[in-house]
Amino acid sequence: MCSTLGLALAVPYIVSYDLLPALIGRSAESEELLVMVQRRIYPSLLLIILVVGAVVLQLKQFRKLYEHIKNDRCEQSNERSLKGVNDEYAFSCPGTWSAVGSSTTTTPTRGARARP
């Protein structure tokens, strides 16, 4: 935790006070740019971290919602097949289709031969 905090404080400081002056030099025009970067590097870094955190949080929530909806559909289709809804095909949970009333689902594998 402490090393992460130290890096979060040290890297922007090194960039704005050491690397950037070495890249653009020290002239009257570049001094204004250096001061502007030095003043705005920490707030902009904070904003970037917050935006990335919000995006990651939203992706996690979307995955949870997707899994929840997928599991609900699976449960509903199993309930329908148990009640005897007379559809030609019913959706089974693992993502395969099976005929209603069949006890097992068979999924053919590549290269499998039928036994006599």
Summed up:
Helices cover 68% and strands 5% of the residues. The chain is built from two helices and two strands, in the order ααββ.
Provide mean pLDDT, rounded: 77
Q: How far apart are the first and last residues' alpha carbons, in Å?
A: 65 Å
Structural class, from secondary structure content?
mainly alpha
| Main sheet specs | 2 strands, antiparallel
Number of strands: 2
Radius of gyration: 30 Å
Q: What is the global morphology?
A: rod-shaped
Strand content: 5-15%
Number of separate structural domains: 1
Give the strand line-up of the largest sheet. 1-2
Element order: H for helix, E for strand: HHEE
Task: Report what the structure shows.
Strands 1-2 form a two-stranded antiparallel sheet. It is mostly helical. The chain starts with a helix and ends in a 17-residue tail after the last strand. It has two helices and two strands, in the order H-H-E-E. The protein is rod-shaped, with a radius of gyration of 30 Å.
Task: Note the main attributes of this structure.
two-stranded antiparallel ribbon, single chain, 116 residues
